[in-house]
Amino acid sequence: GPARFSGSRRKLDVLRSLPATKIGLAEAARAGAQLEPALVYRTLSYAVHPSWTKGERFTLAQEITGAKPETWYLSARDGAGMTVSAEPPEGGVEATVSMSRETFGLMLRDEAVPSGERPVVRGDHAVVALVKAWMDRAQHGV
């Protein structure tokens, strides 16, 4: 049935404004949301417009190190968008980015990462820079 509310009209007006509220991943993380890397990477695959991947075909491995290590494979598909998988591709990867869960959280919140905790990049740095640019564009419109 319909939602019922008791209280002041002012409090009701605040609730009515919630559906129009827009919040990005960084804001959600800064507000205390514990976002799993799998969710963030899958969200990125939907946020990257297929046209952005035109002329690009590569796979980037994103490794989260620590007690429960995990790796996600982000693949650009030449105008067909981006896919994310927990399974390594048959053809290997062009680059790998490794970071701790703590560093992942800092980067997600757009906070400074201490020099000893920065992600380690192996392979094609241009691929990593391109995916970072897509992430920024998707999140900030740049």
Task: Report on the architecture of this protein.
The protein has helices spanning 9-17, 25-30, 37-47, 101-108, 125-140, and strands spanning 57-65, 70-77, 82-85, 95-100, 120-123. By secondary structure, the protein is an alpha+beta fold. The chain has a single domain, classed as Nonspecific Lipid-transfer Protein, Chain A, CATH 3.30.1050.10. It has a five-stranded mixed β-sheet.
Question: What is the topology, as strand order, of the major beta sheet?
Answer: 3-2-1-4-5
Number of helix segments?
Answer: 5
Can you tell me the number of structural domains?
1
End-to-end separation: 43 Å
Helix content bin: 25-40%
How many extended strands?
5
| Order of helix and strand elements from N to C terminus | HHHEEEEHEH
Beta-strand residue fraction: 15-25%
CATH structural architecture:
2-Layer Sandwich
Radius of gyration: 18 Å
Q: What's the mean pLDDT score? A: 89
